[in-house]
Structures are given as C-alpha cells and as structure tokens.
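Lab meeting, action items carried over

1. Structure of the two-component assembly. Owner: GW. Status: complete.
Input record:
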Amino acid sequence: MKGSAAKATKAFSMPEYVAIKPADFNNVLPRLMVNPGDRVKAGTPLFKNKYDERLVFTSPVSGVVMEPVRGDKRLIMEIPVKADKNLVYEEFGHHDISSMNAEDVRLLLIKSGLWTYIRQRPYDLIPAVDATPRDIHVSTFDSSPLAPDYNYLLKDKLVFFQAGIDALARLCGKKVHLGLDGSTDNNIFSPVKNAELHYFKGPHPAGNVGVQIHHTIPINKGESVWYLNPQDVAMIGKLFVDGIYDARRTIALTGPEAGKPAYMEVLAGSKLKTLVEIPDQGQHLRIISGNVLTGDIVSTEGYLGYYHHQLTIISEGDYHEFIGWAMPGFKKFSNSRLFFSWLFPGKKYDFDTNYHGGHRPLVMTGQYEKVFPFTILPVYLVKAILAQDIEKMEQLGIYEVAPEDFALCDYVCTSKTEVQQIVREGLEMLRKEMS
Amino acid sequence: MKGLRKYIDSIKPKFRKGGRFAKLESTFEAFETFLFVPKKVTSSGSHIRDSVDLKRTMIIVVVALMPALIFGMWNVGYQFHKAMGTSVSILADFWFGFQAVLPIIVVSYVTGLAIEFISAQIRHHEVNEGFLVTGMLIPLIMPVNIPLWVVAVGTAFAVIFVKEVFGGTGMNIFNPALVARAFIFFAYPSEISGDSPWIFGFDNNLSGVDGITGATALSQAAAGHLESLPSLSDMFFGFIPGSIGETSKLAILLGALILIITGVGSLRIMLSTIAGGVFMTLIFNLIGANNYMQIDPLTQLMMGGFMFGTVFMATDPVTSSQTASGKIVYGFLIGVFAILVRVFNPAYPEGMMLSILLMNTFAPLIDHVVVQNNIRKRLKRLPKINTNVEPK
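Predicted assembly:
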C-alpha cells in the first residue's frame, strides 16, 4: 500500500481543541465531573464511568471545558476541552517504583486516569479497577498497513518505557510479556528488563497482541490478560518518573492521499483540523483514525481516537466500474490470485473504500484460515456468534480474540461479510451473559 | 460507458419500491451489477476490501471449464464422423459439436437463471452468481444425445429442490449439477445410463454401424469386456465417447491448473480424492476376484467421470467439507467410494456421481468431528494452566 510515513517528526504544536470520545471505550457511560466553563489541568478528572464510578478519565490537556457534544438520546459523544497555549499539569509527585507495592501502583494509575490506557482480553475493554490479570502483554510492533514504527517513535523515550514496564511488572507481580519484531536486528526493545521477550516474525497480524498472547500462553475461560500500546507504556513511565500525565504522543500520518506522509507529535484526542491539511479539490476522501483495517471514520471536525497512533487518508471508492469482474485486473490488489496483479509481487497500490462487490452468503472456504493465525476455527466461531450460541462461542475460543484479529478476514472475504462487527457483537453478548 | 451509466441511473427509480417495475428489482440489480461493479463503500469494519467478489470467483471457474467444453464440442463431431465412417477437418468437427452442444447449454442456463431470478425477487435478494457455474457444469456431464426437455426438467429440479429450497447459493447440501444428473439418471434411465451409445444423432438401434459400439469405457468395464477398453492415451486425450465435458483428461487438468493457481479449487481435495481412488483400486487389485477388480489404478482414474468429478465437483466449496483436515478425509472417501460403487454395482457404472453425493451428505459430519476435536484440545489445556495458577 502506498503512503507510508517518512522518518521525520513534525514538532509538537498545540491543537485548538482536544476531546475524549466515550465511544472509544466499550462498556463506558460517562458521568461528568466538571461543568462547561471549568478550568482543568492535564490530569484533572473529566468524567467517571457510571457502570463503575471508581474508573475516572482525566483531561489530556489544560484548558477550558466546553459544552459536551451529544448524540441520540442525549448520549455524550465528545467532551471537548479548549486548549491553553501552554500545558499545565496536575502534580502526582515523583515515585520510586522499586519501593512501591502493587496497591500503590494501582492507586496512582487510577488517580491519574492512566488506568484507562490498559485494556484486557477477553471482551476488549478497560479492566475493572480491582481486577488482577494473569499476565500483562505489550506488543512493541504494529504489523498493520502503513503502521507507525515504534522502534523509531520510542528511541528517545526508552527510559520512560522501561519505567512503565517496571510499574506494570510491579502491578501484576511478575514479568511483563513483550512481543518483539523478529525481522529487524537492531531492536531498541531487546535490552528492556523486567520483561520476558518473545520474538515474532511474519506478515500482519503478527504484531497483533491477540496473536502474540495466543502463541505465548493462550487465554482460557476465567482468565484475563491485559495489554497496552508501547507509547502508552512510556506515558505511564513518565507518570512515575516525572509525576505528570503527559499525553503527547507521536503519530504517523499515512495513506495514499495524505500529501506528505510523516510522523508528528500531537496530543491524544487532538482535533484533526489543526493537525492535517486536507486538499479540498472536491475529491472524496476518507480520514481514518487508526489503520485501514480497524480504524474509525472521522471528519476534519473530529478528533484523534484514544487508542490510535496513526491517521490514514484514502479516497472513497464511490465509483462504478464497468464490468470490473471480467477485467484482467493488473492494477487491483487481491490476496487471492484471481487477478493478474499476483504476477507482480511487491508492487504498491492505492487502496480505496470500494466494496468491490455485493454481500453474499458464505461460499468460499479456507479463506479466513489463511489470514487467521490462531488454532481457532474462525468460520465456525463466526457462525456460533450469528447463531447466538454462547456455549459454542466459549468452546470455540472466543475469549482469546478481539475484533481486530478478524480485520483481515473482513478484508479477504469474497462474500463481503462484516466479520469484525459480528465478533464485537458476540463479545458484547458474552459479557452481558457473564455479568 | 458514461452514457450507459447515465441511462441506468435514470431508469433506476422505476425499479425501486413503489416504482412501476418494482417487481423486477432483483432482475434490474443483477443486470446493473453485471455491467458495473457497485459503488458501495465500506461503513464499518475494515475500510479497505479485497478486489475479489463472488462474480469474479465464479467466472474463473467457468473459464476453467472452457478447455473441457471446447474439447467436448470437438469430440462430439469427431465421434459422430467416426461412427459414420467419415473424417472431416478439425473445424468441421468442432462446428458440428458446437451446434449439438449449444442448445443444451442454452436450455440449462435459461431454465436455471429464470428460476434464480424469480426466487431472488421473492426473497428480495440480489441474484446470486452460483448458477453461472452450475449452468455450465450441467451440460458438461450430460451425454450429447440427451433430449433438451430432459435437461430442462433436470435443471429445474436441481435448482428448485436442491438449491432454492435450502436458501440459495451457499446454503445447499448437495451439488446441484450432480443432483440434476442423478435425477435424470434415476427418472429417465434410458437417456443417460451409459449402456447406449453416447454419440450425437444415434439412437439405440443404430449403434452397430460399422462395428462401433459407441458404449462408454465404463459400461464396457462393467460388462467385463476389458479387451474392448479404449487405449490409455485415447482416454487421456479424450478421443472416446462419453459425457460432453468429461472425456479429455488433458482438458480437465488444464482447468484444474487454473483452479489451483487461482486458489479457487482446493488442491487438498483433488489430491486426496485421487489418493482415495488409487488406494481402493490397489486393494481390489490384491483381491482380484473378477476382471473389473484387476483394472490398474491409472485406467480407473482415466475412465468415466472420475477426473471431472475430482476437479470440478468434489471441490465445490459449499457442499464439501470446510475444515482443512476435513477436506482430506472427504476427498479420500470420495475416491474410495467411487471405485467401490463402480466395481460392486455394475448397474450404476458412474460411481463418481453417487460417491460425491454420498460424501456431500457426510461432509457436515466430518466437519463436526474436526470442530469437536478443536474444542477438546482447548478444553485439555484448561486444567494444566489452572494448576499453575492455583498455588498462588
């Protein structure tokens, strides 16, 4: 795919607005702890979760709270904060991790709001504040299309990353599992201590944390494994070392329509308008917060997703193609060899959002299995979800997966089945059944 | 192109709900998507999608069938002129066969597609592409002198009772093309049993002309006339009487190559089916109780519809096993049963057809065993890890 980011980072510039979108989290209903017009610092609580009020979300920026944007049934969609010129932080104090116990670490993470950067399998959501994981797992590389290279992003922040790993190891009482890219020789993460290193090699989804957990120690019913993005680990490290919630992160601006793809330092939840310039030529473009396989659609008025470290811009594929199914297809990329493009491996393509066909019942077999490196039978799991058969879902291993693991199934499906959406529904069904 | 697109957009509203031709919505959509790939864009899940769709997949299978079809047309002419004791040019043979085969194809497509369109409209679905392949397979497994009305009845039966009743493309349990043939085989046995000559323009009584029996290799073998079997090379290249598409193993292998390279057909099933056939034949060779049991494996593979069934029928993704290991078992058993039926029941010379249909029935069972196996493995690792956790 065309449009990978050049290895140069644009310096940090303060966005006009920063927002948290409750829709980025599963099973979170916000109860506001501030009023519009209140002044907040970076690290001041903005809202808590109605389902579990101990879980607080803090502001990534200092500034003035704006009127929340509401959607259907007055559901809060966005909580924007108008940013100050300069960041002011809440002080959480310096900490020496080696003298802290698990409880201290836990309390600090909850208080600072950084607990919300931890997510768990099964169910793919923020873990309960009093839960203990079986393991904590961090994947230090992203294998999805045009993904940022964390070896580059974190090369100056390795101290903080190490501190974050130390804190997490303290929290769960054992070494953190670290998934490393086995295809590069100079991996900056290989000297990391307090961690068990696992090397993974191969095409996407080798960098997916779910795949890595599966090939380290798979998740069984009743167990939970927590995972974090490496940049968020460094952020947690900074919290312990410097005592502040510093939400600055480096993201990759990518995609065939991105103009000049590059890295840039931004705040989590920044408004996109101030980040990217969209060439307005009446061209239909789609801005994706995240990567093309799992990201969310956003407009220029929208904000960067909470867990996203990448922006991708591709063109909307809303065109008709004359008898496209009969053309030789030299310019069409396909995972199959049904188009002549398979004769030219390594070529880069402009992807767009066209479906390239209509929705059909499942006909072809063996397609998902090729892009799904689990000892799980994906088609049978998907069918169990469609049939709402909870017992079958458990038996077939739904505890190990999250929708992102099925992203490539989504992509390759001849019948254009929405596999990720089905898996998300299955997980929600299971969670409601279990709670 | 643009003009055509504009025209389609302009007449579109008439086919929408409330429009004058709302009853033809599925039909309209079928033609529209035939001409233009829809402009629908992704809204959830992965933002980019593979260029492949079912239309493309199906059309590749049809392309893979072309060598067998073209050779079959030529062979129809060749067999006719051979029986007449004359010989004409290759083109003349082909033209003769073309005229004989085309009506069968047309009847098969028209009957099947009409039913597909009607049922798509009843369900308010888009018309599915599955019949593109079925409609081509049906003529290829018919003898050329089949009456057209029999083709129509067989196709209609298969599409209605084997496909649409189960929910259409992707939902059927049995391969519709094979059921069409099986239906004709049992309902109109005199038209298709393989005892009478399968040469265009000859009915049963004329079969003795010039000492040419016109019988297929299978019926010869079933009758124990091993000495009158065609030579191996004739069977491989296909200069023998038989169903239209099955005679030339070379053409079938060409098709197989297309299916394997594109990944549409399962190599796993093809190989395991052949392995199953060879395995069973070798067992019979060991027993050797009658003439038929002594036929060597290669001849068995070359006779009748074994190769055609292996490449185009057994690999049907809808009716075969869906799991990787299930496919091996499934293919192997098809091979075994095909030879078993051939040798033990001379009343049904074509064991391949019955064998595949039989295994279609068992494919879900095979998959069930594989799935249960997967579940058992997952359950097994549960106590092992839990004991590791407990001491804490």
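2. GW to write a short summary for the group page. Key points so far: Residues 1 and 7 of chain B are 10 Å apart (CA to CA). Confidence is low (pLDDT under 50) at residues 203-213, 385-392 of chain B.
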